[in-house]
Amino acid sequence: DGGITQSPKYLFRKEGQNVTLSCEQNLNHDAMYWYRQDPGQGLRLIYYSQIVNDFQKGDIAEGYSVSREKKESFPLTVTSAQKNPTAFYLCASRWANSNQPQHFGDGTRLSIL
Amino acid sequence: ILNVEQSPQSLHVQEGDSTNFTCSFPSSNFYALHWYRWETAKSPEALFVMTLNGDEKKKGRISATLNTKEGYSYLYIKGSQPEDSATYLCAFLSPRYNNNDMRFGAGTRLTVKP
User: Fold this and answer.
1) Residue of A99, A103, A106, A108 to mutate, testing the B interface (most B Cβ within 10 Å of its Cβ)
2) B40-57 per-residue burial string, b: 16 or more CB within 10 A, e: under 16
3) Which candidate, B39, B36, B34, B76, places its Cα nearest to that of B58?
4) Is residue A74 scored above 70 in pLDDT?
5) Would the pLDDT of A2 be above 80?
6) Is the pLDDT assigned to residue B1 strictly greater than 80?
7) How many A-B residue pairs are in contact by the CB < 8 A criterion?
8) Cis peptide before B26 (omega within 30 of 0)
């Protein structure tokens, strides 16, 4: 079945560590997105990419980094510079340059130990 | 920052009530508006893709309208059922970055009591 896979589902990080969240899609979508959700808030855009080797900062990119070396993969690294990384992270993909909606993964919940 | 606002933040209704929510977005540089439904423990799923001023879309008891000139969209649910309980998100797609810049509102959390 086509879809988006995020792993792991739950992730724990010690302060000062970088962690990488995985997002893989087999929908052949060009565009991929990372969002963060905090309790009681909506989805805030961290980074997005419309094509391999290209990505754009969203509203809250500080403390995060991404790469897009393959069309199907868009990993997100939460660096030690991100002061409040505890949140729920959602990855999404869609057909680029279109009005088509996003397809979402199941999310990763990151917590600080 | 592209501001997309939704109201109310939460809503509690009785089974059988009809309800509606609002999504406000920048009226300039509009490309598309999406509505999503996000049930607890699941991923958000698309309900509607709206592109033209005056668009009206319907899926069962749920419908949506779009006014791009004044920058708002309404989502209506007729005869709410407990299974309609979810968070309803709208997302604004702007022409920035080749029509790929998508920003979400904070959502309206609907609870339908039996």
Assistant:
1) A99
2) eeebbebbbbbeeeebeb
3) B76
4) yes
5) no
6) no
7) 61
8) no
pLDDT (average), residues B91-109? 88
Q: Pick from A24, A30, A64: which is nearest to A47 by CA?
A: A64
C-alpha distances out from residue A15 to A66, A78, A81, B10, B28, Å: 20, 11, 10, 34, 42
Residue B96 confidence class, pLDDT cut points 50, 70, 90? confident
Distance (Å, whole) CA A51 – CA A67: 11
Average pLDDT, rounded, for chain B: 93
Give the three-state DSSP class for A24. Answer: strand
Q: Do B97 and A100 touch (CB under 8 A)?
A: no
Token pair of A4 as six digits: 């988006």
* A94 vs B contacts (CB less than 8 Å): 102
pLDDT at B13: 97
Query: C-alpha distances in angstroms, B65 versus A27, B20, B22, B23, B53?
Result: 29, 11, 10, 10, 9
Distance CA B90, CA B23 (A): 6
Q: Which residue has the tokens 């709206």?
A: B50
User: pLDDT-derived band of residue B84, with 50, 70 and 90 as boundaries?
Assistant: very high
